[in-house]
Amino acid sequence: MSDLRIAVMVKQVPDPNLVEISEDGRLMRENVPSMIDPFGKMALQHAITNKCQHHVDAISMGPMQAQDVLRKSLEFGADDAYLISGREFAGADTIATARTMAAFLSMRDYDLVFCGMQATDGDTAQVPSELAVFLGFNIYSYATSIDLENMTVTQSYERADVVSKLSLPAVITFMRPPHGCVQIPSMTDYVSALKKEIKVVGFADLGIRMCDTGAKGSRTKVKSVSTIIPKKKSTEFIDGADTVSAASAIMKEVKG
Ligand code: FAD
Prior knowledge:
By secondary structure, the chain is of the alpha/beta class. It contains seven helices and 13 strands. A nine-stranded mixed sheet has the order 11-10-9-12-8-1-6-7-13, with helices on both faces. The longest helix is centred in the middle third of the chain and has 13 residues, at about 95-105. About 35% of the residues are buried. The site of flavin-adenine dinucleotide (FAD) has 32 residues, from α1, β6, α3, β8 and α4.
């Protein structure tokens, strides 16, 4: 199929190796180098690999610094880039984030919305399915590859890979980069990215209500954040020489 319009959602996340959590449970993003969310980058790579005759936009919602990930997306070969930014959006939980981004996407007539399967900071994996609901799109999660010639998508399930016919319009979440994908931008894309403008989209451009976005549009509040320390279990060796007593020792362990 030709001339599809693809939106790739790229989030700016703090470098996970450098970020710390404050005493009140906030991610301390200040002065921490940021990067493009790794799963979002995989979504971008799938879009660029399949680009040919399709149009690819990179879209992010975040503070003005998030322009960096959009500049990188342009360097990787995205055609245009849009940053949804403004103080009205601050404090948005996942549903307010998705509603805001869906308001923008619905104005631009996309056939496909590519996302990462989860972002490495918030990590909820909720935004793509919320986007699909707000847009009224189909959703295909945990995709490992996509074939836009034959309109199929391969999704990874616990026991098997499933190939489905793609029904548009759709949101797709990616969990792996495409096979043999390019890790560095081509010189042509890099140079043409320098001339491109990142368009900033504000609250007034979206036609949404204050009560639907930012902290006011958020239905959840973070009460506390804690680190789960997994309990260490030591390995118990059961002597297998006497199979009957070994089996009963295992049964005792299983039954608790
Ligand atoms: P996931 O659902 O795990 O992301 C999956 C994919 O969706 C990503 O790979 C990407 O493709 C796409 N995606 C997700 N978010 C974006 C985005 N912003 N732009 C482009 N693509 C995206 N965050 C703040 O920065 N400031 C706050 O004040 C703040 N307040 C919050 C308050 C509450 C109560 C909660 C619950 C969250 C708050 N957050 C805040 C976090 C913010 O809601 C999440 O960062 C955002 O909704 C994305 O969720 P996630 O990281 O779990 O994304």
